[in-house]
Amino acid sequence: MQLDLFAHSRPVMLRNDLILALRERQSAASREAHARLAGEYPEDGLLIPAQRLLDQLEAPRPAPFSSHKDAQCAIEQAESALADSASTVFGAVMASDWMTPVWQILADACEKLPYQRNIPSANPACMLMRSRCWDAAEAAIARIPNWRRMPEPLAWMAEARFKLRGLGSVWPLLAELAWRAPARFAALARRLDATALARLLRGFESEFATGDDADFAWFPAWALSTEAKLVDGLLEEHTPEYSPPEQAAWTIRQLLILERQGRHHEIVKNRETLRDLHPELFAYYMRSR
């Protein structure tokens, strides 16, 4: 049987026309391309996801949300049906770019809602993070009262500033995130594209951690033991909680400073403090001396 190349290329051509029009956010052209594909190939799998994207293009800009519940519903709809449809139509990488204006629109609609810890996504900062608008995200996070004391906005700020200024600018935020929410720190640290951090994470997981994400609360202290040059940049100020993992980090920082100064009596006292806080960490620290 001879293959009819034109017959087989026809649906491909129609799909490509639809994808191109949607990618360029051309509403009228998308509508026409969708109608042509539906008319000739009504069972084509691209039609339903493409229709969702077309509906989004033609939807009126939403009014400011009056409640966190309304915002959450709209965001969940965008996360599920819309983002999934974009991935189906464009593929994951291009879908992320296509969704950027959607997140920006939702950020504007969330503008008047105060931050709620139980619904963190219903905040403009979260939507701006999704759209990779790092400057605007940083400003929005800074407007959240006490953002530095809450894991979610703290993690947002660490990521936004990393994207804007690099790893050196966010070590203190990463340390505080590790103490407050070690699992959240682990997830963020593994995602950041930072060679120095990735190397430390590999060392921590192979030489010290037991496999529990809770172990990452001790990562700042371990990192100081491993990289003495972090002494001037990893820690910024005590948190109100001042947990044992944080105490250990500050103790090691003090030890590194005392070692530079050769103050042996105080070194002994601080080593005793570290040993009481975490004997295994103390043993690791001593092996590097």
Written account of the structure:
By secondary structure, this protein is mainly alpha-helical. The protein folds into 3 domains: 1-59, no CATH class; 62-131, no CATH class; 146-289, no CATH class. 69% of the residues lie in helices and 0% in strands. The chain has 15 helices and no strands. The longest helix has 23 residues, at 68-90. The protein is elongated, with a radius of gyration of 26 Å. The chain starts with a helix and ends with a helix. 33% of the residues are buried.
Characteristic key phrases:
single chain, about 290 residues, mainly alpha, 3 domains
**Total strands:** 0
Distance between the termini: 78 Å
* Shape, principal axes of CA atoms: elongated
| Main sheet characteristics | none
Number of discrete helical segments: 15
Order of helices and strands: HHHHHHHHHHHHHHH
How many structural domains can be distinguished in the coordinates? 3
Overall pLDDT confidence: 94
The amount of helix comes to: 55-70%
Uncertain runs are 1-7
How large, in whole angstroms, is the Cα Rg? 26 Å
Strand content: under 5%
Structural class: mainly alpha
Task: List strands and helices in order, with pairings.
Layout: H1 5-23, H2 27-40, H3 47-58, H4 68-90, H5 92-109, H6 124-130, H7 134-142, H8 151-165, H9 171-180, H10 182-191, H11 195-207, H12 219-226, H13 244-261, H14 264-277, H15 279-287
